[in-house]
Specification:
Layout: H1 2-25, H2 32-54, H3 59-87, H4 91-99, H5 103-143, H6 148-152, H7 156-169, H8 175-185, H9 188-202, H10 209-233, H11 237-247, H12 253-261, H13 266-291
Helix pairs in contact: 1-5, 1-9, 1-13, 2-5, 2-7, 2-8, 2-9, 3-4, 3-5, 3-10, 5-9, 5-11, 10-11, 10-13, 12-13
Length: about 290
């Protein structure tokens, strides 16, 4: 029974990733920049809005998830800083890869497929708060520059605030608004997974030592933080499982994009993304067995 449940969760995830991987491997074109823009500007904000504004969850649960995202970020930054100091590796290049798990492309599908609408809403809350932190302080750390306008124009932030308004007041969004955001938002998860497959094919590993070391560190650190944090916060059930899933994800592809944009050893960061994703995917059946 548990095997069939795990299989039903992983099959859609792996299928979408493999579609993207073999699509570009066959020589077909895939406009990653266009798809990323559509997901970032429209898909993800719509997914956040309709999921949070209509979910039947006590607002306190969502507040707990937001706090968990903040605490997880702090824990990853502190432990990542310590680990990179011990390994004598540059923090500006590699701290993002250790502190920014793939909570969007992989984490959200897993939360939804494992725990349904409740898991998706909790996962999205974690995702939205974590993204807000990483897209502000994280980008500032790597780029050594700060842009208030870049923060304010990130669509996921106003979408989250608008959804929170409906949720806190107990008001359902208008039907036309819910249907529109749901139609657009439902594109997000499959497009995220397909784009991940495309990215995994395009990224190349130049050497293995540093990627393997940091990938093991990222996954082990993520699992331990995800295991400890709910206990410290007094959380259990679906909320605790979602935190564990999100924290245990491999390094996000976005880390490579930042490293490439600001010339922070992008080949080695790409290696961390690829190796941690392969390791993380191979461990997913055991992770799901644990949370189920």
């Amino acid at each position: 029974m548990i095997f069939s449940t795990i299989l039903s969760i992983l099959t859609p995830v792996f299928t979408c990733v493999l579609i993207g991987y073999f699509w570009v491997r066959s020589g077909r074109s895939y406009d990653t920049e266009l798809i990323t823009a559509l997901v970032t500007l429209f898909g993800a904000p719509c997914l956040v809005f309709y999921s949070l504004s209509s979910v039947e969850l006590h607002p306190q649960h969502l507040i707990h998830m937001g706090l968990a995202a903040v605490f997880a970020n702090i824990a990853f930054l502190a432990l990542g800083w310590l680990g990179l100091s011990l390994l004598h590796l540059p923090k500006q290049a590699f701290l993002q890869a250790l502190s920014f798990p793939n909570i969007g492309n992989v984490g959200l599908p897993l939360c939804f497929l494992t725990f349904g609408e409740e898991g998706l809403a909790l996962g999205i809350t974690f995702f939205a708060v974590y993204m807000a932190i990483q897209m502000t302080f994280g980008v500032v750390f790597v780029s050594q520059t700060f842009s208030l306008w870049a923060i304010l124009k990130t669509p996921i932030i106003p979408a989250t605030l608008a959804a929170a308004l409906f949720l806190m007041t107990g008001t359902a969004p208008p039907k036309w608004l819910y249907n529109t955001t749901k139609l657009i938002g439902d594109l997000t998860i499959p497009l995220m997974l397909i784009t991940l497959g495309v990215s995994l094919y395009k990224l190349k590993i130049t050497q293995l030592k540093i990627p393997v070391q940091l990938s093991v560190f990222r996954l082990l650190m993520g699992f331990l933080v995800g295991l400890t944090l709910p206990k410290l916060m007094g959380l259990d059930g679906t909320a605790a499982s979602v935190i564990l899933l999100q924290c245990s994800m491999p390094a996000a592809v976005f880390c490579y994009l930042l490293a490439q944009m600001y010339d922070q050893r992008p080949e080695e960061v790409a290696g961390v993304v690829i190796v941690s994703t392969i390791m993380g995917f191979s461990l997913l059946p055991f992770l799901l067995w644990y949370v189920l």
